[in-house]
Design brief:
Blueprint lengths: L1 H38 L1 H7 L7 H20 L18 H60 L8 E8 L6 H4 L48 H13 L2 E8 L12 H10 L3 E6 L7 H15 L7 E3 L6 E7 L7 H8 L15 E5 L5 H8 L3 E3 L16 H10 L3 E3 L1 E2 L23 H13 L4 E3 L34 H17 L10
Parallel strand pairs: 1-2, 1-10, 2-3, 3-5, 5-6, 6-7, 7-8, 9-10
Antiparallel strand pairs: 4-5
Amino acid sequence: MRLYLGNVVTLVSVRKCFYLSSVVLVLSTMMAAVIIVKLSPLESVKCQPQAVTAAVEWNTLANNNNNNINNNRRHGNNNRFSARPPYAAAATSTEQMTTVRTTTTTTERRINYFESRRENNERRYKEMREKMVQNKIAKMSRKMRNKVLPLLNNSGVVEPNYNVHIFYYAWYRSMEYDGFWKHWNHDILPNWKKNDKRIFPEGAHMPPADIGANFYPNLGCYSSLDPQVIDLHMRQLRDAGIGVAVVSWSPPSSIDDTDSIMPDILDAAHRYQLKIAPHIEPYPGRNPINLMEHIRYLLSQYASHPALYRMKRESDGAVLPVMYIYDSYVFPSSAWWELLSDRGNLTLRGTELDAIYIGLLVESAHRNHIKKSHFDGFYTYFGINGFSFGSSWKNWRDLNKFATQNGLLFIPSLGPGYIDTQIRPWNAENTRHRRHGQYYEVAWRSALNSGAGMVSITSFNEWHEGTQIEPAKPASNRDFTYLDYEPEGSDFYLNLTKWWVQQFTEKLGYYYAASALS
Protein backbone atom coordinates (compact mmCIF):
# COMPACT_ATOMS: atom_id res chain seq x y z
CA MET A 1 0.00 0.00 0.00
CA ARG A 2 2.82 2.32 0.90
CA LEU A 3 4.53 1.45 -2.39
CA TYR A 4 1.36 2.19 -4.33
CA LEU A 5 0.94 5.61 -2.69
CA GLY A 6 4.55 6.39 -3.44
CA ASN A 7 4.03 5.59 -7.13
CA VAL A 8 0.96 7.82 -7.25
CA VAL A 9 2.82 10.74 -5.71
CA THR A 10 5.67 10.27 -8.17
CA LEU A 11 3.29 10.19 -11.13
CA VAL A 12 1.57 13.40 -10.00
CA SER A 13 4.91 15.15 -9.58
CA VAL A 14 6.03 14.16 -13.09
CA ARG A 15 2.81 15.46 -14.59
CA LYS A 16 3.16 18.78 -12.76
CA CYS A 17 6.71 19.15 -14.03
CA PHE A 18 5.59 18.37 -17.56
CA TYR A 19 2.82 20.96 -17.44
CA LEU A 20 5.10 23.60 -15.95
CA SER A 21 7.76 22.91 -18.61
CA SER A 22 5.18 23.24 -21.38
CA VAL A 23 4.00 26.57 -20.00
CA VAL A 24 7.57 27.84 -19.75
CA LEU A 25 8.35 26.70 -23.34
CA VAL A 26 5.28 28.45 -24.74
CA LEU A 27 6.00 31.67 -22.86
CA SER A 28 9.65 31.60 -23.94
CA THR A 29 8.67 31.11 -27.57
CA MET A 30 6.25 34.03 -27.45
CA MET A 31 8.80 36.30 -25.81
CA ALA A 32 11.44 35.34 -28.38
CA ALA A 33 9.03 36.11 -31.21
CA VAL A 34 8.25 39.53 -29.74
CA ILE A 35 11.94 40.32 -29.34
CA ILE A 36 12.75 39.26 -32.92
CA VAL A 37 9.95 41.39 -34.32
CA LYS A 38 10.99 44.38 -32.27
CA LEU A 39 14.63 44.07 -33.28
CA SER A 40 14.06 43.50 -37.01
CA PRO A 41 14.92 46.31 -39.54
CA LEU A 42 11.38 46.13 -40.89
CA GLU A 43 9.90 46.95 -37.45
CA SER A 44 12.32 49.85 -37.08
CA VAL A 45 11.11 51.34 -40.30
CA LYS A 46 7.45 50.71 -39.48
CA CYS A 47 7.74 52.36 -36.09
CA GLN A 48 9.41 55.43 -37.53
CA PRO A 49 7.21 58.53 -38.17
CA GLN A 50 6.80 58.91 -41.93
CA ALA A 51 6.74 62.72 -41.85
CA VAL A 52 10.24 62.88 -40.40
CA THR A 53 11.99 60.39 -42.66
CA ALA A 54 13.15 62.01 -45.91
CA ALA A 55 12.53 59.93 -49.02
CA VAL A 56 15.76 61.10 -50.62
CA GLU A 57 17.73 59.63 -47.72
CA TRP A 58 16.23 56.21 -48.37
CA ASN A 59 16.77 56.52 -52.10
CA THR A 60 20.38 57.41 -51.44
CA LEU A 61 20.71 54.44 -49.15
CA ALA A 62 19.11 52.12 -51.69
CA ASN A 63 21.37 53.35 -54.47
CA ASN A 64 24.46 53.05 -52.31
CA ASN A 65 23.43 49.57 -51.21
CA ASN A 66 22.97 48.56 -54.84
CA ASN A 67 26.40 49.93 -55.64
CA ASN A 68 27.78 48.03 -52.67
CA ILE A 69 26.18 44.79 -53.81
CA ASN A 70 27.40 45.26 -57.39
CA ASN A 71 30.85 46.12 -56.13
CA ASN A 72 30.91 43.00 -53.97
CA ARG A 73 29.83 40.89 -56.92
CA ARG A 74 32.58 42.44 -59.05
CA HIS A 75 35.10 41.17 -56.52
CA GLY A 76 33.46 37.76 -56.09
CA ASN A 77 32.05 38.33 -52.57
CA ASN A 78 28.25 38.52 -52.65
CA ASN A 79 27.50 38.20 -48.94
CA ARG A 80 30.38 39.86 -47.18
CA PHE A 81 28.53 43.09 -46.39
CA SER A 82 24.81 43.77 -45.91
CA ALA A 83 22.95 47.08 -45.86
CA ARG A 84 22.27 46.82 -42.11
CA PRO A 85 23.20 44.14 -39.54
CA PRO A 86 20.22 41.99 -38.42
CA TYR A 87 20.70 42.99 -34.79
CA ALA A 88 20.22 46.73 -35.30
CA ALA A 89 17.96 48.20 -32.67
CA ALA A 90 14.91 50.34 -33.35
CA ALA A 91 15.66 54.04 -33.33
CA THR A 92 13.86 57.33 -33.05
CA SER A 93 13.46 59.51 -36.15
CA THR A 94 16.63 61.52 -35.40
CA GLU A 95 18.61 58.41 -34.58
CA GLN A 96 17.31 56.73 -37.74
CA MET A 97 18.54 59.56 -39.99
CA THR A 98 21.92 59.43 -38.27
CA THR A 99 22.00 55.69 -38.90
CA VAL A 100 21.20 56.23 -42.58
CA ARG A 101 23.99 58.79 -42.97
CA THR A 102 26.41 56.55 -41.09
CA THR A 103 25.44 53.58 -43.26
CA THR A 104 25.85 55.70 -46.40
CA THR A 105 29.29 56.86 -45.25
CA THR A 106 30.28 53.28 -44.46
CA THR A 107 29.06 52.14 -47.88
CA GLU A 108 31.03 54.90 -49.58
CA ARG A 109 34.12 53.85 -47.68
CA ARG A 110 33.62 50.28 -48.79
CA ILE A 111 33.15 51.40 -52.39
CA ASN A 112 36.30 53.52 -52.16
CA TYR A 113 38.12 50.57 -50.63
CA PHE A 114 37.17 48.28 -53.50
CA GLU A 115 37.94 50.97 -56.09
CA SER A 116 41.36 51.40 -54.53
CA ARG A 117 41.91 47.65 -54.60
CA ARG A 118 40.83 47.51 -58.24
CA GLU A 119 43.19 50.34 -59.21
CA ASN A 120 46.05 48.70 -57.35
CA ASN A 121 45.35 45.39 -59.05
CA GLU A 122 45.25 47.06 -62.46
CA ARG A 123 48.52 48.88 -61.73
CA ARG A 124 50.22 45.67 -60.59
CA TYR A 125 48.89 43.84 -63.65
CA LYS A 126 50.20 46.58 -65.95
CA GLU A 127 53.60 46.48 -64.27
CA MET A 128 53.65 42.70 -64.59
CA ARG A 129 52.78 42.91 -68.31
CA GLU A 130 55.48 45.51 -68.91
CA LYS A 131 58.01 43.34 -67.15
CA MET A 132 56.94 40.33 -69.22
CA VAL A 133 57.33 42.34 -72.44
CA GLN A 134 60.75 43.59 -71.36
CA ASN A 135 61.86 40.06 -70.51
CA LYS A 136 60.54 38.82 -73.85
CA ILE A 137 62.35 41.57 -75.73
CA ALA A 138 65.54 40.82 -73.81
CA LYS A 139 65.15 37.14 -74.65
CA MET A 140 64.58 37.96 -78.33
CA SER A 141 67.59 40.26 -78.22
CA ARG A 142 69.79 37.43 -76.91
CA LYS A 143 68.34 35.13 -79.54
CA MET A 144 69.08 37.61 -82.33
CA ARG A 145 72.61 38.20 -81.07
CA ASN A 146 73.33 34.48 -80.76
CA LYS A 147 71.78 33.74 -84.13
CA VAL A 148 72.77 36.66 -86.34
CA LEU A 149 75.71 38.53 -84.90
CA PRO A 150 78.24 35.71 -85.45
CA LEU A 151 77.31 35.88 -89.14
CA LEU A 152 77.90 39.63 -89.17
CA ASN A 153 81.48 39.36 -88.07
CA ASN A 154 82.67 38.30 -91.51
CA SER A 155 84.27 41.27 -93.21
CA GLY A 156 83.95 39.82 -96.69
CA VAL A 157 82.76 42.00 -99.54
CA VAL A 158 79.36 41.14 -100.96
CA GLU A 159 78.32 41.95 -104.49
CA PRO A 160 75.49 44.47 -104.77
CA ASN A 161 72.13 42.89 -105.49
CA TYR A 162 70.23 45.17 -107.88
CA ASN A 163 66.95 43.55 -106.94
CA VAL A 164 67.31 45.01 -103.45
CA HIS A 165 66.24 48.67 -103.40
CA ILE A 166 66.23 51.18 -100.55
CA PHE A 167 64.47 54.55 -100.20
CA TYR A 168 66.91 57.43 -99.74
CA TYR A 169 66.16 61.04 -98.74
CA ALA A 170 68.34 64.03 -99.67
CA TRP A 171 66.21 66.78 -98.15
CA TYR A 172 68.23 67.54 -94.99
CA ARG A 173 70.03 70.88 -94.55
CA SER A 174 72.20 72.05 -91.65
CA MET A 175 73.07 75.41 -90.18
CA GLU A 176 76.76 74.59 -90.30
CA TYR A 177 76.88 73.64 -93.98
CA ASP A 178 73.92 75.49 -95.55
CA GLY A 179 73.36 78.39 -93.17
CA PHE A 180 69.83 77.22 -92.32
CA TRP A 181 67.98 74.19 -91.02
CA LYS A 182 65.70 72.02 -93.12
CA HIS A 183 63.79 68.93 -92.04
CA TRP A 184 65.78 68.53 -88.82
CA ASN A 185 63.56 71.36 -87.54
CA HIS A 186 60.40 69.63 -88.75
CA ASP A 187 57.05 71.06 -87.58
CA ILE A 188 54.88 69.08 -85.18
CA LEU A 189 52.02 68.18 -87.51
CA PRO A 190 48.37 68.80 -86.56
CA ASN A 191 46.21 65.82 -85.74
CA TRP A 192 44.32 64.67 -88.83
CA LYS A 193 41.97 62.54 -86.70
CA LYS A 194 38.95 64.82 -86.32
CA ASN A 195 37.38 62.89 -83.44
CA ASP A 196 40.56 62.87 -81.36
CA LYS A 197 40.15 65.61 -78.73
CA ARG A 198 43.51 65.11 -77.03
CA ILE A 199 45.79 68.13 -76.79
CA PHE A 200 49.33 67.83 -78.16
CA PRO A 201 52.31 70.19 -78.38
CA GLU A 202 52.61 72.54 -81.33
CA GLY A 203 55.41 74.38 -83.09
CA ALA A 204 58.69 73.23 -84.61
CA HIS A 205 61.77 71.42 -83.35
CA MET A 206 64.97 73.32 -82.61
CA PRO A 207 68.10 71.45 -83.72
CA PRO A 208 70.71 70.34 -83.08
CA ALA A 209 69.62 69.15 -79.61
CA ASP A 210 65.92 68.92 -80.50
CA ILE A 211 65.14 67.32 -83.87
CA GLY A 212 62.04 65.99 -85.61
CA ALA A 213 62.90 62.34 -85.04
CA ASN A 214 62.78 59.69 -82.30
CA PHE A 215 66.33 58.52 -83.08
CA TYR A 216 69.45 60.67 -83.36
CA PRO A 217 71.82 60.24 -86.36
CA ASN A 218 75.35 59.07 -85.73
CA LEU A 219 76.59 61.86 -88.02
CA GLY A 220 74.62 64.50 -86.16
CA CYS A 221 72.37 66.92 -88.07
CA TYR A 222 74.12 66.66 -91.43
CA SER A 223 73.44 68.34 -94.76
CA SER A 224 72.40 66.17 -97.69
CA LEU A 225 74.42 68.50 -99.92
CA ASP A 226 77.69 67.69 -98.16
CA PRO A 227 79.81 65.58 -100.59
CA GLN A 228 81.45 63.73 -97.70
CA VAL A 229 78.05 62.72 -96.34
CA ILE A 230 76.89 61.53 -99.77
CA ASP A 231 80.06 59.51 -100.28
CA LEU A 232 79.76 57.87 -96.85
CA HIS A 233 76.10 56.99 -97.45
CA MET A 234 76.84 55.34 -100.79
CA ARG A 235 79.72 53.38 -99.27
CA GLN A 236 77.48 52.18 -96.43
CA LEU A 237 74.84 51.02 -98.92
CA ARG A 238 77.49 49.25 -100.98
CA ASP A 239 78.93 47.48 -97.93
CA ALA A 240 75.43 46.26 -97.05
CA GLY A 241 75.01 44.66 -100.48
CA ILE A 242 72.18 46.94 -101.56
CA GLY A 243 72.14 47.61 -105.30
CA VAL A 244 69.71 50.50 -105.87
CA ALA A 245 69.03 53.71 -103.95
CA VAL A 246 65.55 55.01 -104.74
CA VAL A 247 66.11 58.74 -104.27
CA SER A 248 63.24 61.05 -103.32
CA TRP A 249 62.91 63.49 -106.23
CA SER A 250 61.00 66.73 -106.73
CA PRO A 251 61.44 69.19 -109.63
CA PRO A 252 63.65 72.31 -109.22
CA SER A 253 60.71 74.62 -108.52
CA SER A 254 59.35 72.59 -105.58
CA ILE A 255 59.79 73.27 -101.86
CA ASP A 256 61.86 70.14 -101.27
CA ASP A 257 64.11 70.61 -104.28
CA THR A 258 66.24 67.47 -104.41
CA ASP A 259 67.03 67.80 -108.09
CA SER A 260 70.10 69.96 -107.48
CA ILE A 261 71.83 67.16 -105.59
CA MET A 262 71.10 64.40 -108.13
CA PRO A 263 74.40 64.81 -110.09
CA ASP A 264 76.49 64.36 -106.92
CA ILE A 265 74.42 61.37 -105.80
CA LEU A 266 74.73 59.72 -109.23
CA ASP A 267 78.50 60.27 -109.29
CA ALA A 268 78.99 58.89 -105.77
CA ALA A 269 76.76 55.90 -106.54
CA HIS A 270 78.78 55.13 -109.65
CA ARG A 271 82.01 55.06 -107.61
CA TYR A 272 80.54 52.28 -105.49
CA GLN A 273 78.80 50.31 -108.29
CA LEU A 274 75.38 51.42 -107.12
CA LYS A 275 72.37 52.46 -109.18
CA ILE A 276 69.91 55.31 -108.66
CA ALA A 277 66.16 55.28 -109.37
CA PRO A 278 64.00 58.42 -108.95
CA HIS A 279 61.19 58.30 -106.38
CA ILE A 280 58.83 60.97 -107.70
CA GLU A 281 57.17 62.72 -104.76
CA PRO A 282 53.64 64.27 -104.71
CA TYR A 283 54.92 67.84 -105.00
CA PRO A 284 52.31 70.65 -105.03
CA GLY A 285 50.41 70.82 -108.29
CA ARG A 286 51.50 67.42 -109.55
CA ASN A 287 49.19 65.92 -112.17
CA PRO A 288 49.69 63.44 -115.01
CA ILE A 289 50.23 66.23 -117.55
CA ASN A 290 52.95 68.22 -115.77
CA LEU A 291 54.39 64.94 -114.49
CA MET A 292 55.05 64.01 -118.10
CA GLU A 293 57.03 67.23 -118.55
CA HIS A 294 58.96 66.68 -115.32
CA ILE A 295 59.87 63.17 -116.44
CA ARG A 296 61.04 64.64 -119.73
CA TYR A 297 63.28 67.04 -117.79
CA LEU A 298 64.58 64.30 -115.49
CA LEU A 299 65.50 61.96 -118.34
CA SER A 300 67.03 64.73 -120.42
CA GLN A 301 69.34 65.55 -117.51
CA TYR A 302 70.29 62.11 -116.22
CA ALA A 303 69.37 59.40 -118.74
CA SER A 304 72.93 59.23 -120.03
CA HIS A 305 74.47 58.75 -116.58
CA PRO A 306 75.78 55.19 -116.07
CA ALA A 307 74.43 55.08 -112.49
CA LEU A 308 70.79 55.58 -113.53
CA TYR A 309 69.06 52.29 -112.83
CA ARG A 310 67.68 50.41 -115.81
CA MET A 311 66.11 47.01 -116.18
CA LYS A 312 64.75 44.82 -118.93
CA ARG A 313 61.02 44.83 -119.61
CA GLU A 314 59.84 41.27 -120.02
CA SER A 315 57.16 42.04 -122.59
CA ASP A 316 59.48 43.39 -125.28
CA GLY A 317 63.02 43.09 -123.92
CA ALA A 318 63.58 46.87 -123.85
CA VAL A 319 66.10 48.08 -121.22
CA LEU A 320 64.50 51.13 -119.61
CA PRO A 321 64.93 53.46 -116.61
CA VAL A 322 62.85 52.67 -113.51
CA MET A 323 60.56 55.31 -111.97
CA TYR A 324 58.77 54.95 -108.63
CA ILE A 325 55.58 57.09 -108.42
CA TYR A 326 54.54 57.87 -104.84
CA ASP A 327 50.78 58.28 -104.19
CA SER A 328 49.96 57.24 -107.73
CA TYR A 329 46.44 56.22 -106.67
CA VAL A 330 45.32 59.85 -106.13
CA PHE A 331 44.76 60.13 -109.89
CA PRO A 332 42.13 57.98 -111.61
CA SER A 333 43.26 55.00 -113.61
CA SER A 334 41.80 56.61 -116.75
CA ALA A 335 44.32 59.47 -116.46
CA TRP A 336 47.23 57.07 -116.10
CA TRP A 337 45.89 54.94 -118.95
CA GLU A 338 46.33 57.90 -121.30
CA LEU A 339 50.05 57.95 -120.44
CA LEU A 340 50.94 54.33 -119.81
CA SER A 341 48.79 52.40 -122.26
CA ASP A 342 50.19 52.04 -125.76
CA ARG A 343 46.69 53.03 -126.94
CA GLY A 344 46.50 56.21 -124.83
CA ASN A 345 46.26 59.60 -126.51
CA LEU A 346 49.33 60.82 -124.59
CA THR A 347 51.15 57.51 -124.41
CA LEU A 348 54.76 57.44 -123.27
CA ARG A 349 55.26 53.92 -124.58
CA GLY A 350 57.75 53.65 -127.38
CA THR A 351 58.91 57.26 -126.89
CA GLU A 352 61.99 58.77 -125.23
CA LEU A 353 59.89 58.97 -122.04
CA ASP A 354 59.19 55.26 -121.90
CA ALA A 355 60.26 53.64 -118.64
CA ILE A 356 59.40 50.97 -116.08
CA TYR A 357 56.75 52.82 -114.05
CA ILE A 358 56.08 51.47 -110.54
CA GLY A 359 52.87 52.59 -108.78
CA LEU A 360 52.05 52.57 -105.07
CA LEU A 361 49.59 50.01 -103.72
CA VAL A 362 48.08 50.81 -100.32
CA GLU A 363 44.56 49.37 -100.29
CA SER A 364 43.20 46.13 -101.72
CA ALA A 365 41.23 48.07 -104.36
CA HIS A 366 44.48 49.53 -105.71
CA ARG A 367 45.22 46.21 -107.43
CA ASN A 368 42.54 47.01 -109.96
CA HIS A 369 43.80 50.60 -110.20
CA ILE A 370 47.36 49.41 -110.94
CA LYS A 371 46.13 47.01 -113.59
CA LYS A 372 43.79 49.46 -115.33
CA SER A 373 46.41 52.22 -115.24
CA HIS A 374 48.91 50.00 -117.09
CA PHE A 375 51.68 50.40 -114.55
CA ASP A 376 54.55 47.96 -114.97
CA GLY A 377 54.49 47.00 -111.31
CA PHE A 378 53.77 48.17 -107.79
CA TYR A 379 55.40 48.62 -104.38
CA THR A 380 53.90 48.95 -100.88
CA TYR A 381 56.30 51.51 -99.27
CA PHE A 382 55.03 51.53 -95.65
CA GLY A 383 57.08 49.39 -93.29
CA ILE A 384 54.17 49.17 -90.84
CA ASN A 385 52.76 45.68 -90.66
CA GLY A 386 48.96 45.91 -90.41
CA PHE A 387 48.80 49.60 -91.26
CA SER A 388 47.32 48.97 -94.71
CA PHE A 389 46.47 46.07 -96.98
CA GLY A 390 49.68 46.50 -98.93
CA SER A 391 51.94 46.84 -95.89
CA SER A 392 50.53 43.74 -94.14
CA TRP A 393 52.96 40.85 -94.41
CA LYS A 394 50.19 38.25 -94.55
CA ASN A 395 48.99 39.66 -97.90
CA TRP A 396 52.31 39.60 -99.74
CA ARG A 397 52.02 36.06 -101.07
CA ASP A 398 48.62 36.85 -102.62
CA LEU A 399 49.94 40.15 -104.01
CA ASN A 400 52.83 38.33 -105.64
CA LYS A 401 50.38 35.84 -107.13
CA PHE A 402 48.26 38.71 -108.48
CA ALA A 403 51.35 40.34 -109.99
CA THR A 404 52.48 37.12 -111.65
CA GLN A 405 49.05 36.47 -113.15
CA ASN A 406 48.96 39.98 -114.65
CA GLY A 407 52.56 40.31 -115.82
CA LEU A 408 53.45 42.90 -113.16
CA LEU A 409 56.43 43.44 -110.89
CA PHE A 410 55.73 43.10 -107.17
CA ILE A 411 58.19 44.92 -104.90
CA PRO A 412 57.19 44.51 -101.23
CA SER A 413 58.54 47.19 -98.91
CA LEU A 414 59.95 46.07 -95.57
CA GLY A 415 61.40 48.08 -92.71
CA PRO A 416 63.14 47.75 -89.34
CA GLY A 417 60.30 49.45 -87.44
CA TYR A 418 58.26 52.64 -87.32
CA ILE A 419 57.88 55.55 -84.89
CA ASP A 420 56.96 59.15 -85.76
CA THR A 421 55.71 60.60 -82.48
CA GLN A 422 58.21 63.46 -82.55
CA ILE A 423 56.36 64.95 -85.52
CA ARG A 424 52.99 63.18 -85.09
CA PRO A 425 52.55 62.81 -81.31
CA TRP A 426 48.98 61.62 -81.82
CA ASN A 427 50.05 58.65 -83.99
CA ALA A 428 51.50 56.33 -81.34
CA GLU A 429 49.10 53.56 -82.36
CA ASN A 430 51.12 53.00 -85.55
CA THR A 431 54.44 52.60 -83.74
CA ARG A 432 56.20 49.33 -84.52
CA HIS A 433 59.02 48.68 -82.08
CA ARG A 434 62.23 47.25 -83.51
CA ARG A 435 62.72 44.65 -80.77
CA HIS A 436 66.45 44.53 -81.37
CA GLY A 437 66.07 43.39 -84.98
CA GLN A 438 63.26 40.89 -84.44
CA TYR A 439 60.70 43.00 -86.34
CA TYR A 440 63.14 43.38 -89.26
CA GLU A 441 63.75 39.64 -89.31
CA VAL A 442 60.05 38.80 -89.61
CA ALA A 443 59.64 41.41 -92.36
CA TRP A 444 62.51 39.92 -94.36
CA ARG A 445 61.22 36.38 -93.91
CA SER A 446 57.77 37.46 -95.06
CA ALA A 447 59.24 39.03 -98.18
CA LEU A 448 61.29 35.93 -98.95
CA ASN A 449 58.32 33.62 -98.38
CA SER A 450 56.09 35.72 -100.65
CA GLY A 451 58.08 34.62 -103.69
CA ALA A 452 58.81 38.19 -104.78
CA GLY A 453 61.92 38.56 -106.93
CA MET A 454 62.57 42.13 -105.79
CA VAL A 455 62.34 43.90 -102.42
CA SER A 456 62.52 47.50 -101.25
CA ILE A 457 63.65 48.70 -97.83
CA THR A 458 61.93 51.59 -96.05
CA SER A 459 64.33 53.27 -95.48
CA PHE A 460 67.97 54.34 -95.35
CA ASN A 461 67.39 57.73 -93.74
CA GLU A 462 63.74 58.70 -93.29
CA TRP A 463 64.46 59.85 -89.75
CA HIS A 464 61.08 61.53 -89.18
CA GLU A 465 59.27 58.19 -89.28
CA GLY A 466 61.94 56.14 -87.53
CA THR A 467 62.37 53.69 -90.43
CA GLN A 468 66.07 54.35 -91.02
CA ILE A 469 68.87 51.78 -91.04
CA GLU A 470 71.47 54.57 -91.12
CA PRO A 471 73.62 54.44 -87.96
CA ALA A 472 72.15 56.14 -84.87
CA LYS A 473 73.69 57.00 -81.53
CA PRO A 474 72.47 57.54 -77.96
CA ALA A 475 71.52 61.17 -77.29
CA SER A 476 69.24 63.23 -75.09
CA ASN A 477 68.27 66.78 -74.22
CA ARG A 478 66.59 68.32 -71.20
CA ASP A 479 63.14 67.06 -72.19
CA PHE A 480 63.68 63.99 -74.35
CA THR A 481 65.84 60.86 -74.60
CA TYR A 482 66.28 59.53 -78.12
CA LEU A 483 66.00 55.88 -79.03
CA ASP A 484 69.10 54.05 -80.22
CA TYR A 485 70.35 50.65 -81.40
CA GLU A 486 72.06 49.65 -78.16
CA PRO A 487 73.34 47.24 -77.03
CA GLU A 488 73.97 45.96 -80.57
CA GLY A 489 75.71 49.16 -81.71
CA SER A 490 75.20 51.98 -84.20
CA ASP A 491 75.94 49.85 -87.30
CA PHE A 492 73.61 47.04 -86.27
CA TYR A 493 70.95 47.56 -88.95
CA LEU A 494 73.48 48.01 -91.74
CA ASN A 495 75.08 44.72 -90.73
CA LEU A 496 71.72 43.02 -90.35
CA THR A 497 70.70 44.24 -93.80
CA LYS A 498 73.92 42.83 -95.25
CA TRP A 499 73.12 39.43 -93.79
CA TRP A 500 69.55 39.43 -95.09
CA VAL A 501 70.64 40.57 -98.55
CA GLN A 502 72.89 37.52 -98.62
CA GLN A 503 69.98 35.27 -97.62
CA PHE A 504 67.78 36.85 -100.29
CA THR A 505 70.44 36.41 -102.95
CA GLU A 506 71.07 32.79 -102.02
CA LYS A 507 67.35 32.02 -102.00
CA LEU A 508 66.95 33.41 -105.51
CA GLY A 509 70.05 31.51 -106.57
CA TYR A 510 71.76 34.22 -108.58
CA TYR A 511 73.67 37.49 -108.38
CA TYR A 512 72.98 40.61 -110.37
CA ALA A 513 76.09 42.10 -111.93
CA ALA A 514 76.23 45.83 -112.59
CA SER A 515 76.85 45.40 -116.29
CA ALA A 516 73.63 43.42 -116.75
CA LEU A 517 71.51 46.45 -115.87
CA SER A 518 73.54 49.26 -117.42
